[in-house]
Design goal:
CATH architecture of the largest domain: Irregular
Strand order of the largest sheet: 1-2
Distance between the termini: 70 Å
Number of helices: 7
CATH class of the largest domain: Few Secondary Structures
Strand content: under 5%
Largest sheet: 2 strands, antiparallel
Mean pLDDT: 89
Number of domains: 2
Helix content: 40-55%
CATH topology of the largest domain: 30s ribosomal protein s13, domain 2
Low-confidence stretches: none
Amino acid sequence: MTRISGIDLPNDKRIEAALPYIYGIGPTLTKQILAVCQIDPNTRTKNLKEEEIAKLQKEIEKYKIEGDLRREIQSSIKRLQEIGSYRGIRHSKNLPVRGQRTRVNARTKRGKRVTIGTVRKEVAVRMEKTTQQGK
């Protein structure tokens, strides 16, 4: 396994497909990095030479990735929550932040559906009695 920036990259994948395993590096940034390092995107990770791995490591260090990026994103969200902005409130309520509708969708953010059934007549009468006794 090739290890770059503390992440094990899969051996059997092309380097172009393996670099996005690092948090903060996507397809576009991968192409830029490979162009700067002059590495063929079709090269398998296991076929990389030591000097190519060193070049990749040195180039990737220029970007904010993994823990640093995660920490920065979390601090930005925390700042929004502390100042009480609309986006911060939406983050803390675990709802979509960017204006998506929530009436029928937003399942990814809100989680699994919870069906709220109707209260049966007997249960409603019992609940009514207990509230009257408490008065």
